[in-house]
Amino acid sequence: MAGNKPPDALHLLRSMTQSFSTLSYDGVFVHSEAMNMNSMRVRHGLMNGVEYESLVDLDGDKIEVLRIDDKIISVYPNAMVANTRAPLIPPFRRFKDVESDRLIKGYEMVISDNISRIAGRKVVAVKLVPKDQYRYGHQFWLDEENHFLLKHDMMKKDGKLLERIQFTSVNFAPDLKEKDFVPKEGSYAESVVDTPPRRVKNLWQFDWLPKGFSLVWPEARSLNHGTSMLLLSDGMTTVSVFIEPTMKPKSMSILNMGATIAGERSIKVKDQLYLLTMVGEVPEPTIEKLMTVFMPRPEHD
Amino acid sequence: MKALNDDLSENHSSREKGNSLDVNGYPDVLPSLSAMFDGEATEQDLECLLNADSNDISRQLENFHLIQQTLHKESSVAVGLEGSLLSRIRAELDVDASFSDVQDNSEESNLLPFVLPTESKHASRPAWRMALSSVAIAASVTFVVIFAGNEMLTTESQAPNLTADVRSSLPDMVVTPLAELDGEALQFDNVKLQHYLRQHAEQATMTVGQGMIPMARVVSYPIKE
Fold it and tell me: Which residues form the signal peptide (chain A) (predicted)?
């Protein structure tokens, strides 16, 4: 391992981020976590000024998630169930840069001297070592030529692997056509109506946050069933916060799904109970602690 | 549990023959029960269970339990499960109906109306669809009932090998629940959780700089098979 080289590591991460939206690619990767493993095909292309992306599960039912510019469509093999929606804000294109200030607060960044091969291509590895116990470690293996992400490990602080994504093959000169991103005959997809995001005043705050974490949006997002959503990030991982009125008191419970942790509890503000749910790829103690320091903003704010 | 599920699946596969009487002359709820445990319960199956005599369900559950006892050579006997099963089915139907009402009445909906199945096909991975549909009411009932069924048919020493592990806070956890909260049993609302997990995955795609790859997690979220 080489010594710390934050500027170089940041440059690689920045380039990795951009490669997802600027490159055309057609690849197969394996996603594994806990006892689950799925192989998936991802395709991405820019055609006539429109960005197309497709993620298809290759195991079991052939469910596909399509993205055409800022619209996400879920496609099912048959007309079983379907749910399509426009995301709250146009995805991916908001990536102008990696959030280096946050990253530096939370991680040591190390570039490996070793050049290895993933999916038949030479890679360079970047490791993000967490500076505290409130986040996981990451290692990225990037294509040496175009810095496309070919392998990603998420690890506990002690090095135990939590989640891995690894490409087995990838083609950076795919012959993609618009029709490749049209749901196949016999499959089912719902047309999409683009709904403007509804931004509402954030009435909540955290009394504490791990270093580097902050709210991604200054305001809250109103979801469709009376739920407000907030988003925290340290530049590498995210924690989603959902808060909604409820009638039922609940003490804290934690749901562990590989690298993803979900926590739920009710909190009482004056005479109103609220159900607080947090979801994120962070250690359990982070979710637990965040849930205890979540509170309403003072009314004069 | 796998062997038991296989056994139930055999019963389920025979339900194409239609409802019949069992050897004792009782209406046979076994096909609907087995369909439920297989994650393939249709509205008719749920209707059948809700309308069935609780003694019939109790008898079938005892049969299932005897099969499990045989397979696992354990001696504890499950009793009084039928009421719990029916109440949970009814509770889930109530919850889902109210959830649906709220969605339908919302003026700020970001979600398009979902489409319920027009026909029931073999569901090899029901939770898969749950993960990606998030608001599929019929499927969500199946999902929850499967979970409840596994809980009922498994003793503590033989807990199902679930991907998701729910636990309450430990006594030494740095958590101070508000004094007003009671000690009610903890249970995530699966439909809502799937919706939140999907929201989370979508936002992660916009925030962590890995394109659509974080969406891969959605299909790996809680799987109950």
Answer: none
